[in-house]
Each structure stands twice: as C-alpha cells, then as structure tokens.
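Subject: Sanity check before I submit

Could someone independently write out the structure tokens for this chain? I want to compare against mine line by line before I put it in a report. The sequence has 112 residues.
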Amino acid sequence: MQQPTRLLQSNLTQVVVWCVATPVLTGWFLISLLPVASLIGNWGDPLAALIALAFLGTGAVGVLAGAVGYRLLLWKQPSMQIVSSETRTRRALWLSIYASIWLVLYGLYAMN
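---
Independent answer below. Compare away.
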C-alpha cells in the first residue's frame, strides 16, 4: 500500500509544479521580448542599451538559443538519454524560478 501512495504524491507534485510553471514560463516568454522596445527607445544612451541587451540575452529567447546550441553540441553522442518525468518537472521548476527572478528584475528596470 506504500507504493501507490508514493506514486500518487509524486504525480500530484508534478501536476502542481506544471500548473505553476506553465503560466510563469508563458508570461516570461512574452515579456522577454520587451527589451527590444527598450533597446530601440534607449538607443542614444549606451548604458540603458547595454542593460536592455543584457535582458534580451538572458530572456527566454537567449535561454532557448543556448539550450538549442547545447543540444547541437551533444548531437554526435552515441546514445541520447531518456529523461524521466521527475527530471523534466525539476527542470521546469528551476526554469520557472529563474524566469520569476528575471521578471522581477526586469519589472524593476522597466519602472525606472
């Protein structure tokens, strides 16, 4: 009777993490395109343009480009590992935490 309870708890944890991660990551992806407008608006100020470029590079597009580049580097490996659902959920949780911190920092930058 212990195994079904542990499996149920693991599944419920995964559902909760994904229910939180999905809107956070979706909003992060959309908002991470706003530094383009900041870059265009602050083109004359080098410091503000550099900060906007930093936010653009560390946003969803930059992280996605880094992940794709990393996978391309590992392309020639003899066998690709199959990742468990717990590992994918843990990655989504860490990425959501990163995205939340990024959103707070960009919000503070955009208010100035």
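---
OP: Matches mine. For the report I'm noting this point. Residues 2-31 form the longest helix (30 residues).
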